[in-house]
Design brief:
This protein is an alpha/beta fold. It is built from five helices and seven strands, in the order E-E-H-E-E-H-E-H-E-H-E-H. Strands 1-3-4-2-5-6-7 form a seven-stranded mixed β-sheet, with helices on both faces.
């Protein structure tokens, strides 16, 4: 299977319900805390500068955004969560939306969970990771801003995730050097092939 990631177009948005009229494509969900670099990664992955808008206001996106990638699968961009000014009410509405999205979603093949490599997981991160593990769906932990870590910190960080989330693959990603980008693309293609 060869996928041209640059052939990616926005399709629709959703509050968690399955949008009508979608093709029966597999889905790859991107999720992470506000300001983790999710939009930048999606833009780099698809080689499109402004596909996923990079907002100066963390927590700006409130909907699930569906993108058609080369008429092969849907990349689903979840809103960032956990921005302090949003408050607990927004966290609760994010949780409700994600539960609705996950429920009975047989097309969901892979979850790409982004974490700032320099930060420790907070309770919201852990809760969502636990839910993902319970769902028994393939997932990748992408450690963003990895260029900020020295070799010793990179090793300790990777070991933490590998030891605590044994079912996940772990990738370091840098928006500056694009480290990890080809690996992520390969893993997405491989997972989609296996889920056919």
């Amino acid at each position: 299977m060869k996928i041209d990631f640059s052939k990616t177009n926005f399709v629709t948005s959703s509050i968690g319900d399955k949008p009508r009229g979608l093709s029966p494509f597999k889905e790859v969900l991107f999720v992470g805390r506000s300001n983790v670099g999710k939009s930048s990664l999606i833009n780099a992955l698809t080689n499109r500068k402004n596909l996923a808008r990079v907002s100066s206001k963390p927590g700006h996106t409130k909907l699930l955004n569906y993108f058609d990638v080369d008429h092969t699968f849907y990349l689903v961009d979840a809103p960032g969560y956990g921005y302090a000014k949003s408050g607990r009410k927004d966290i609760a509405s994010f949780g409700a939306m994600m539960e609705k999205y996950f429920h009975g979603n047989s097309n969901l093949s892979l979850i790409v969970f982004l974490v700032d490599a320099r930060r420790e997981l907070n309770d919201d991160d852990k809760m969502l990771l636990d839910l993902i593990e319970e769902l028994n769906i393939n997932f990748i932990i992408v450690l963003t801003k990895s260029d900020k870590l020295n070799q010793s910190l990179r090793y300790r960080t990777k070991m933490y995730y590998q030891n605590n989330y044994k079912h996940a693959s772990v990738i370091f990603y840098s928006a500056i050097s694009k480290e990890g980008l080809p690996t992520l693309q390969e893993m997405i293609v491989k997972t989609l092939l296996l889920s056919q």
